[in-house]
Write a structure and sequence with these properties.
transmembrane, chloroplast, 0% strand, mainly alpha, Protein PsbN, plastid, 2 helices, 52 residues, PSII_PsbN
């Protein structure tokens, strides 16, 4: 069994994982900002519009 793991492959794997984590965190932060921040004032509630 050949288990030679070079530092280059570890570095590139760590870089990929870090990039994906940052991307996911950015999407979550943007979604929370749009949902509850200043842009939320422009959102409309279709259920509230049709209440009698």
């Amino acid at each position: 069994m050949n288990t030679n793991i070079t530092m280059d492959s570890v570095d590139s794997a760590l870089l990929l994982v870090t990039f994906l984590e940052c991307l996911l965190l950015g999407i979550v932060v943007y979604a929370v900002y749009v949902s509850f921040g200043p842009p939320a004032q422009d959102l409309r509630d279709p259920f509230e519009e049709h209440e009698d």
